[in-house]
Amino acid sequence: MLAEGADFPWLRGLMLRRRVSARVRFVQEVGRVLRSYPGKTEGVVFDPFDLMGELGMTHDEAIGEVLDGEGEVQDEREADFRERGTAASPMAVAVMPISGWLADVCMALEPHGLKAPRPGRWRRDAATPAQVKAARGMAGYLKWWRGDERAKALLTEWTASNRITRKGDAADLIALFRWLADRSAPARALMKGGAFVRAREEYRWPDVVLPEELPSLDRER
Asked: Is residue 3 part of a domain?
């Protein structure tokens, strides 16, 4: 309901119910609850349809990037046309806590060469058998993970389970495993030639801060 002209800095809660195709406009709408006001300490955004996930806004820095002009900017008139053409309201989705955590991990590793999947509504679609098979086939590259060992165990368990349910999650896992494969390629070549000590010495984990709080594999309701 809140669009152009709404100015309620005292607003403390916002429910996202309308699809917005343009990231800049989406951030502007979310920003209505993030404005400062005397006595206001926080703004709560309810996102039952995972609209933030659709637009790749699952990490804190993404909102700032868009407001600073560094994020993707889409034509507002074209976005409005697409929104008006979508008659049906989005369906509420169940999102696993690990989904947002993995998206944050991918975002943190992007400056170090990880190619994160693009945002979009496709992320909420059901993962294909080919995606799940690919993720499981690449899970062996987790041996080159040098982050928190608990995170490594969590990723291993998730990949081996039957709980990779969304395309976006499967794509993020594959992107992470492909990054590990590419980064470890020189070390693996050395190991293939028998230079195991040199391989261990030359493999470098980036100086990166990853999310410290590990999620569960339970599904949110």
From this structure: no
Last residue of a domain, one of 93, 118, 135: 93
Q: What is the DSSP letter of 219?
A: P
Tokens of 69: 């002009």
How far is the C-alpha of 97 from the C-alpha of 102, rounded, in Å? Answer: 9
Mean per-residue pLDDT of the chain: 78
User: Which residues is 45 bridged to in the sheet?
Assistant: 14
Question: 187 pLDDT band (50/70/90 cuts)?
Answer: very high
Determine the straight-line distance between the first and last CA of the chain, rounded to whole angstroms. 25
Residue 133 to residue 219: CA distance in whole angstroms: 21
Q: Containing domain of residue 21, as a range?
A: 12-93
- Residues with Cβ < 8 Å from 49, sequence gap 6 or more? 16, 17, 19, 90, 91, 92, 93
DSSP 194: T
